[in-house]
Design brief:
alpha/beta; binds NADP nicotinamide-adenine-dinucleotide phosphate; 3-stranded parallel beta sheet
């Protein structure tokens, strides 16, 4: 059986060209506000990448940086202002945030119409009902990769390992909405490998390097590896899948890096454009 690598860079570049063309035709540019709290080095890198992407696409971006002592009320007030600001179409709160803050309350204060990360409970609820809404970027990007490679989802047995609000849960919802038969696994799942072996499509978002091994998948499986793990002694990031050994059993597989990762920021830009279009057509 021939194995195909699902190249997220190619799909992301295609999406980038589509978005760039649309943005270039707009008189008023879409605007993104990013709220960043504290000095988390990974957050700083992600915000820098988002800024770079916005600049390349001609999208306005503003950063609201706070130190770790910021209060919940200050942030709620900022979000209220951004909700009212017509030049801002998308608002995102960069996580992680300090423990003294209530992140769910902050997500819920963002207008559902500007919730480009899809973390507001209105959008979470709409996703679970199969309604049009903002969907978290990583699972939405995965659906786009599957579509670009003509991987049929309907009727397939899909297994999602991981149930986080950012990846696993919305991934499962998207697959259900696309008529797959979906099983969600997590740290309390028993006989995990018996379940993963039933997967036609296996999506792994656990955060443990080489967590999925070759004996855990069946021949002809499609494997999507969401993991981003930094391993001591290696400069390259590693996925959750033992790629070298698993790939020989796959029909399709995403590499790490170069699979799911490149899709996330460009999918955010797609969500921003959707917010812009929805808000300007209101
Ligand atoms: P998370 O919030 O830590 O969730 C991890 C999930 O894995 C949890 O649901 C947990 O189960 C489950 N899990 C842990 N140990 C397990 C085990 N032994 N067996 C089965 N399930 C187990 O992580 P996340 O935010 O979803 O991210 C997962 C990975 O994806 C991380 O490496 C992260 O860096 C990466 N990521 C990548 C992108 C991207 O753009 N490529 C975006 C987001 C995240 P419980 O719920 O029972 O604890």
């Amino acid at each position: 059986m021939q194995m195909t690598i699902l190249d997220g860079k190619i799909v992301a570049n295609k999406l980038k060209d589509e978005i760039k063309e649309k943005v270039s035709s707009l008189e008023i540019k879409p605007g993104l506000a990013v709220i960043c709290i504290g000095d988390n080095p990974a957050s700083k890198i992600y915000v820098k990448l988002k800024r770079k992407m916005c600049e390349e696409l001609g999208i306005y971006i503003e950063e609201h940086n706070y130190d770790e002592n910021v209060t919940q009320d200050e942030l709620l007030e900022l979000i209220d202002d951004l909700n009212e600001d017509d030049s801002i179409h998308g608002i995102l709160l960069q996580s992680p945030i300090p423990y003294h803050l209530n992140i769910l309350e902050l997500f819920d204060r963002i207008s559902p119409k500007k919730d480009v990360d899809g973390f507001n409970s209105v959008n979470v609820g709409k996703l679970s009902q199969g309604q049009d809404c903002f969907v978290p970027c990583t699972p939405l990007g995965i659906m786009r990769i599957l579509k670009e490679y003509n991987i049929e989802v309907e009727g397939k047995n899909c297994v999602v390992v991981g149930r986080s609000n950012i990846v696993g849960r919305p991934m499962a919802q998207l697959l259900i909405n696309a008529n797959a038969t979906v099983t969600v696994c997590h740290s309390k799942t028993k006989n995990l490998s018996e379940i993963t072996k039933t997967a036609d499509i296996l999506i792994v978002a656990v955060g443990k390097p080489k967590f999925i091994t070759a004996d855990m998948v069946k021949d002809g499986v499609t494997v999507v590896d969401v993991g981003i793990n930094r391993v001591e002694g290696s400069k390259r990031i590693k996925g959750d899948v033992d790629f070298e050994n698993v790939k020989d059993k796959c029909e399709f597989i995403t590499p790490v890096p170069g699979g799911v990762g490149p899709m996330t920021i460009i999918t955010l830009m797609g969500n921003l454009l959707k917010a812009y279009e929805d808000l300007t057509n209101d």
